[in-house]
Structures are given as C-alpha cells and as structure tokens.
Amino acid sequence: MVDGNIILSVAKAMELLQLLSRSKKPLSLKELSAQCGYPKSTVFGLLTTMRTYDVVTQTPDGKYSLGLRLFEYGRQVERSWDISLVARPYMEHLCQQTGASVVLSVCEGGSVVTLDQAETRGGLHIVSDVGSRLPLYCTSQGKVFLANMSRAGAEALLRAQPMTQFTPHTVTDPSALMREIETCRANGYAIENGEYKIGLRSVSAPVYTVEGKAAYAVGVIGMFRSPHSEEFHAAVEQVCVTASMISTALGYRKQEETL
C-alpha cells in the first residue's frame, strides 16, 4: 500500500541511492535507468539534483556512485545514538521473556563495565549496579569480549590481571579458559556457570556496531537450575535473538558470504 503523503520524486531518488549502495561499482546513467525503470531524463534530473547536495558523485568517465556527504550523515547519526536508549526496549522484552535480570555491558580497561540493566518487578536484585566493574574471565559478558578479540589480545589481557578464585567453579587456568573462549567464539555466545557468584548463571551474546565491532554485550543473569535445563536453553536462544536485534538497530548488517 502506497502512503498518499509520499512524494514520488523523493521516493525515486531513494531508489537510486539504494541501487548505488548495492552496486559494487559506479553505474552509468543507462544502467541506472534500466535497473529502476525510469526514463533517462528523469534519472538524469534526480542525479543532477543529488550531485548538488553531494549525496551522489560522478566519476571522470561519467558514471555515478554514492557521495561523501552520505558518509558524513552516517557518522553524525552514529554519534547521536545512545546505546542504552536504543537497547532498552529490547532489554525489557528479554527480561519479561526470561524472568531474569538483563545487563548491557562494555569492555573497558580490562574489565566489564555495566552500562544498563533491566530487572523483573519484585525480583531479587542480583546484578551489579550501573557503572560497576566485573572481571572478564569469570562472567559471560567478559567471555563474549574475549571471544571477539584476537587470541593474542585475549591472552595479553588475562596475563595483565590476577585470576581470583571467586567460587569453586571459577576457571583460573589461562589455557583452560582460552579453550572455553574458542567454544564461545564458535557458538556466538558465552555462559557463566556459578563462576563469579554461587547459585547464579548467565548467558551473554555480542552486540555489533555498524562497523562490525563487538562493542557491547547483552545477557541475562538468574538463578537458573542448570545450564542444561530447558529454561536456560530457551534463555540462550532469546539472548542471541535480542543481541542480533540490537545490532540491527545500531545499523549492523551481517556480511553475506560470497562463493
């Protein structure tokens, strides 16, 4: 259904921008006209107007590609994003789905820093306060960040800090932990099984920025009976879906593999 408020000339210009963004090379006027189905005169007028605003540029051989102004606009949009504001609705939905506390974290200075959290009403306060720092090696959030670093980078961070035995389940052997990190990297998520606090289990997944960087982690923390329970397996799936949705909201697009 077409909205009666849509201005057709603007819609046509947007179609041309989409064609240019999908193309791996500059396109000629003839190619653009053939692909969009509009007359050459119409396409030429739209391109000329967009060139005036630097959203389209023309190569020396007369072909067209996206202009630098679009890059500037994109950077401005990125700067205006507040990750907590973007992620909050998804976090609250995840909290309702799992009945567990939800945290949004960032890796800073070799620690996990809590940026935001969502908790069930009337539930136990089991997560750390916003702004608090947690260890990388025994939290699911920290393992997510380690799994998205180079192996050398992860090992360097682990060597730079003491690996305290918080519970009987805490893994303090760097080699054993790195094997677990490889599993996290392959799975796309990380779990914590009572390694930081007895009785608490968590699962976290990476949140990617528009550049493809795993800059954040979102996860649930709760008193799950076992990492093998149905409720925990459901939480794993829900966390991964939520992380993907937040990543998409931040502009991340997974690159399709080419044959």
Q: How would you characterize the overall build of this protein?
A:
The protein is α+β, with helices and mostly antiparallel strands. The chain has 2 domains: 71 residues, Arc Repressor Mutant, subunit A, CATH 1.10.10; 169 residues, Beta-Lactamase (2-Layer Sandwich), CATH 3.30.450. Helix content is 45%, strand content 17%. Strands 5-4-3-8-7-6 form a 6-stranded antiparallel beta sheet, sandwiched between helices. The model has no long low-confidence stretch (mean pLDDT 88).
CATH architectural group of the largest domain: 2-Layer Sandwich
Give the averaged pLDDT, no decimals: 88
Helix content percent band:
40-55%
Largest sheet: 6 strands, antiparallel
Judged by helices, strands and strand pairing, the structural class is alpha+beta
For this structure, the CATH topology of the largest domain is Beta-Lactamase
Q: In percent, how much strand structure appears in the residues?
A: 15-25%
Quick recap:
The protein is an alpha+beta fold and 259 residues long. Helices cover 45% and strands 17% of the residues.
Element layout with pairings:
Layout: H1 8-22, H2 29-36, H3 40-52, E1 56-58, E2 64-66, H4 68-80, H5 83-98, E3 101-108, E4 111-118, E5 133-134, H6 140-147, H7 151-159, H8 174-187, E6 190-193, E7 201-208, E8 214-222, H9 230-249
Helix pairs in contact: 1-3, 5-9, 6-8
Describe this protein with a few key phrases.
259 residues, alpha+beta, Arc Repressor Mutant, subunit A, Beta-Lactamase, 6-stranded antiparallel beta sheet, two-stranded antiparallel ribbon
